[in-house]
Specification:
heterodimer, A: alpha/beta, globular, B: mainly alpha, MetI-like fold, binds magnesium ion
């Protein structure tokens, strides 16, 4: 198998990222995961090595089924790797799940506060912190609603808010906006960047949308089809805050074109609207 | 489907019973039915007022209600404990499974003679029979509920750092409540049914006993009254448990 040479590019220090010398918030070394399927060991991830600086926003871009969710679950401590090691500065990452990201039996408010509840933050304090964010992201008045009474976009908003409210050192987001329509996705992306700007947490964001990866992140890692491994790495040097019309600027389009030229054939399922 | 049921006017739930009563009344007054065997509903209504005011009918209803309630509570508590033990421990599951499945497929009333030999012919044997029916349903649904807790939510809570205690009361307990409640609702209905059967074969009072006794003495009015009261009890039990379910499980998609 002639493995394609990964075009690894040096990480440029985009505004907002920490200098590369501080100790990383997350480091994976030669991580491999396999699952038992019908009695056969199937490799899902192999030789995953990368790190993320504190406060860095890193996207993982990869085709469906390549093991993105599995990688996040491993970093969250929910899957035990077959070999390799994960180092995190502040314990396992907090996950925002791809599906059913809210507990159906808890209200919006309880869902948003759940991380703080576990940390035994007093009720009054955790609820006022959650109310503040719910209010700001247009969920005011819906605190007592149950997830089945919310739209998909609202549910994902609550899930993102819970992620940030649980004081994560590392936030692992698994395609939180994949099922939303374009308009809603733009809104939630903006809200996410807004929340992240006020927090110092490191974000690992899984997506198979090239535009989304460029718009949000400081750095993009491209994964291969199963068994997933890191094929390439791109720095995204655009300054923040990033205006929505960034996606039609030449430098954005040039980066997108480069990623698609390198990996377009392997990112089947990636959207190319823009 | 469910939402269509909720949207229909409440009158839809009563027109059919009332029409049937109307037909019955018509047939009885027109002389198509023998009023000795089938007294018209109007006569039943006056008989009902009389029997409630002067007779013992209220007492009979009360006996049936307390008997089935006590049996239900005892069976439910035992069922919850047994189901939880079976759901949480593989050893308990293995040990209790044969007994539970044997009890499941045995008509509880057939155990009455044996129980009367064991604990005597008094109220205890009746309550045990009623409890046994409730026990099985609650135990099985509790077991089901625990087995069907979605591991995704367990992962989600663990990822937030939940302890075993938090996992239990924030994930396992609410996740299996709908199943447990279904078990309890079915058990309440089964409890009433078993109570009636037990009263027909062994008790000296209660609606089941009234039905048997009125048949033997050919008191048709009393017979029909007891049957109608039994049906009303069953229907109101079902309705109130449905309402309670909505309050207790507000997150359930209706
Ligand atoms: N618990 C499991 N047991 C066995 N195989 C699994 C398990 N979880 C995932 N897999 C397999 O691992 C592979 C990667 O799955 P994963 O969910 O990580 O993909 P993904 O990249 O997140 O896909 P998508 O973009 O569709 O969400 C798939 O082939 C899947 O069948
Ligand atoms: Mg996935």
């Amino acid at each position: 198998m002639g493995e394609m040479q990964a075009p690894v590019r040096p990480i440029s220090t985009a505004s907002g990222t920490a200098p590369p010398n501080t100790s990383p918030a997350l480091r994976c070394e030669a991580l491999a995961v396999s699952f038992q399927q019908n009695g056969v060991r199937v490799p899902i991830l192999r030789d995953i090595s990368f790190s993320a600086a504190p406060g860095e926003f890193v996207s993982l871009l990869g085709p469906s089924g390549c093991g993105k969710t599995t990688l996040l679950r491993t970093l969250a401590g929910l899957v035990t790797p077959e070999s390799g090691a994960v180092f995190t500065a502040n314990g396992p990452g907090r996950m925002v799940f791809q599906e059913n990201a809210l507990f159906p039996w808890m209200t919006v408010l309880d869902n948003a506060c759940f991380g703080l509840e576990i940390e035994q933050t007093p009720r009054a304090e955790r609820e006022s912190r959650a109310r503040l964010l719910l209010e700001r992201y247009r969920l005011g008045g819906r605190e007592k609603a149950y997830p089945h009474e919310l739209s998909l976009g609202m549910k994902q908003r609550v899930a993102v808010i819970r992620g940030f409210l649980s004081n994560p050192g590392l936030l692992l987001m698994d395609e939180p906006f994949a099922a939303l329509d374009w308009q809603m996705r733009l809104t939630l992306q903006e809200e996410l960047l807004d929340l992240w700007a006020q927090d110092s947490c490191t974000v690992l964001f899984v997506t198979h949308d090239v535009d989304e990866a460029i718009l949000l992140s400081d750095r993009i890692l491209v994964l291969s089809p199963q068994p997933g491994t890191i094929l390439g790495e791109y720095a995204v040097p655009f300054s923040r805050p990033r205006p929505p019309e960034l996606s039609v600027r030449d430098e954005f389009v040039a980066l997108k074109r480069r990623i698609l030229a390198d990996f377009g054939d392997r990112l089947t399922g990636a959207r190319s609207a823009g | 489907m469910a939402s269509a049921i909720r949207q229909a006017h409440w009158a839809y739930s009563i027109w059919l019973p009332f029409t049937l009563l109307g037909v019955w009344q018509l047939a009885a007054t027109a002389g198509w039915l023998d009023p000795l065997f089938f007294p018209p509903p109007s006569k039943l209504a006056t008989a009902a007022v009389r029997q409630f005011l002067q007779g013992d009918l209220a007492f009979q209803v009360y006996s049936t209600l307390t008997r089935s309630f006590l049996g239900f509570v005892a069976g439910t508590v035992a069922g919850l404990l047994c189901g939880a033990a079976m759901g949480l421990s593989a050893r308990a599951h293995r040990s209790l499974e044969p007994l539970v499945s044997a009890l499941y497929s045995t008509p509880k009333i057939t155990l009455l003679p044996m129980l009367m030999l064991l604990v005597g012919v008094g109220e205890t044997s009746r309550l045990l029979i009623i409890a046994a029916g409730c026990f099985i349903l609650v135990a099985m649904h509790t077991l089901d509920g625990i087995a069907s807790v979605d591991p995704h939510y367990v992962d989600m809570a663990r990822n937030c750092g939940a302890s075993r205690r938090v996992l239990f009361h924030r994930v396992y307990l609410p996740a299996c409540t709908p199943h447990v409640f279904t078990g309890m609702r079915l058990a309440a209905g089964r409890g009433l049914v078993t109570t009636l059967s037990v009263e027909m074969v062994s008790a000296g009072e209660g609606l089941g006993n009234v039905i048997l006794h009125s048949w033997q003495t050919f008191s048709t009015e009393r017979l029909y009254l007891a049957i109608i009261l039994t049906a009303l009890l069953g229907a109101s039990l079902h309705q109130s448990l449905r309402a309670l379910e909505k309050r207790l499980i507000p997150w359930r998609k209706q």
